[in-house]
């Protein structure tokens, strides 16, 4: 009897290893897996690049238009415009507003500016000879240069720093009588939060379709003749976690290597206008307790989330139909991000406590509070305990639904039958 139990245990481990190898290598061989990894970062990268190029071109065009020469007059009721600056730009002053506007209408003058006495109430008026949409912007660009430089000349450097908020500050905080800097301690727990978010986003579709593929292909009965549903579901969940690690490493490692290479090549980082991250990296605080709590929350939260999503996929006859109910899991999961300001209070509110203990909202809530340092050890213990319980429940539910799903082709699984005491075939 003992030998039989050992043989069964070894067989289960062998079957689990078989499932892991099959699921992982099947995903790694698919081009769509690698496309999904790089698609979102590539899209963000392209959007950032085009935004930077567009912003740079707009700035260059504005500077070019501001330097473009054309005839203009200005009537200054405020007394702030610099006369020397107007003469440098080869402009002139007007004392008759209506006559000057008529000169612009007749084409005798390219532009006329009227600066009112009270700039806080009245509007600055610009009259110009039409050329085209792009070149018409030169009139406002030149006026902006005139008013800005006139303002600079009318104030001293300290007043200018106050107006433009270009002054620098240095803050020092104290905790328990000693100098305290919270940011270095937030970096590593923040990485765990980012990993949970991105892995969940990247792999949510794979979680949903991990069991529906077998159902749609009508091969589940054949699979379950050689492997138990529990082993199969556990293998799928663990393989999804492994694939998530592969995705994270695939994205992060090239960035880290690229940063190290660029930083080691002379002044290349400075020439590319890249921020110097070395001071931040050197100041990272490695708190074992905080890191351990984040790691446990990450694993338990991912197991629970994957379990519920796999259960949803197992209950539906097709992946398309399962996607209709997918938001019921994802929306609560991301809810803490919609009420983010509530987590910045030093004393947790009733809402943050509720979100920390409610199953679907707890992973991100607990990771956020652990990062911000507002999660006590007792709360961490309670939150992790609940997460582990719900993770076990989610996996159990996924296994049980999958067993019923094998005989429910073309229809949803009857929830009443899942919790019945009837023996599953």
What is the topology?
Layout: H1 2-28, H2 31-67, E1 72-76, H3 83-88, E2 92-93, H4 97-105, E3 111-115, E4 125-128, H5 137-154, H6 157-164, E5 173-175, E6 178-180, H7 183-209, H8 212-216, H9 220-224, H10 229-264, H11 268-271, H12 278-282, H13 288-315, H14 319-323, H15 327-338, H16 350-357, H17 362-372, H18 377-405, H19 415-418
Parallel strand pairs: 1-2, 1-3
Antiparallel strand pairs: 3-4, 5-6
Summarize the structure.
The protein is mainly α and about 425 residues long. The chain has helices spanning about 1-30, 30-65, 85-90, 95-105, 135-155, 155-165, 185-210, 210-215, 220-225, 230-265, 270, 280, 290-315, 320-325, 325-340, 350-355, 360-370, 375-405, 415-420; strands spanning about 70-75, 90-95, 110-115, 125-130, 175, 180.
């Amino acid at each position: 009897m003992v030998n039989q139990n050992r043989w069964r245990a070894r067989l289960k481990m062998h079957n689990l290893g078989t499932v892991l190898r099959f699921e992982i290598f099947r995903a790694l061989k698919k081009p769509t897996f690698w496309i999904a990894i790089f698609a979102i970062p590539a899209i963000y990268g392209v959007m950032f690049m085009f935004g930077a190029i567009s912003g740079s071109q707009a700035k260059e065009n504005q500077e070019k238009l501001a330097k473009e020469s054309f005839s203009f007059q200005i009537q200054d009721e405020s007394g702030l415009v610099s006369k020397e600056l107007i003469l440098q730009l080869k402009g002139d002053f007007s004392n008759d507003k209506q006559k000057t506007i008529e000169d612009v209408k007749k084409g005798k003058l390219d532009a006329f500016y009227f600066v009112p006495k009270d700039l806080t109430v009245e509007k600055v008026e610009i009259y110009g000879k039409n050329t085209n949409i792009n070149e018409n912007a030169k009139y406002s660009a030149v006026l902006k240069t005139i008013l800005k430089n006139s303002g600079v000349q009318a104030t001293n450097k300290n007043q200018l720093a106050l107006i433009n908020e270009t002054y620098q500050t240095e803050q020092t905080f104290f905790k328990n009588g000693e100098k305290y800097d919270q940011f270095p301690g937030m970096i590593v727990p923040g990485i765990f939060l980012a990993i949970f978010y991105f892995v969940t986003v990247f792999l949510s579709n794979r979680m949903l379709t991990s069991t529906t593929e077998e159902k749609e292909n009508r091969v589940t009965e054949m699979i379950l003749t050689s492997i138990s549903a529990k082993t199969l579901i556990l293998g799928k969940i663990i393989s999804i976690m492994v694939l998530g690690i592969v995705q994270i490493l695939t994205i992060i490692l090239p960035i880290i290597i690229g940063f190290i290479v660029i930083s080691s090549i002379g002044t290349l980082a400075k020439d590319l206008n890249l921020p110097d991250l070395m001071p931040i990296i050197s100041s990272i605080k490695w708190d074992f307790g905080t890191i351990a709590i984040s790691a446990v929350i990450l694993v338990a939260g991912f197991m629970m989330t994957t379990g519920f999503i796999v259960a949803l996929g197992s209950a539906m006859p097709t992946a398309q139909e399962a996607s209709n109910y997918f938001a019921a899991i994802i929306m609560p999961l991301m809810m803490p991000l919609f009420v983010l300001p509530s987590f910045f209070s030093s004393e947790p509110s009733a809402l943050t406590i509720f979100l920390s203990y409610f199953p679907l909202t707890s992973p991100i809530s607990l990771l956020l509070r652990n990062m911000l340092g507002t999660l006590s050890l007792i709360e961490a213990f309670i939150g992790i305990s609940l997460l582990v319980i719900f993770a076990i429940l989610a996996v159990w539910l996924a296994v049980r639904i999958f067993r019923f799903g094998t005989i429910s082709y073309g229809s949803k699984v009857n929830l009443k039958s899942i919790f019945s005491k009837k023996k599953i075939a």
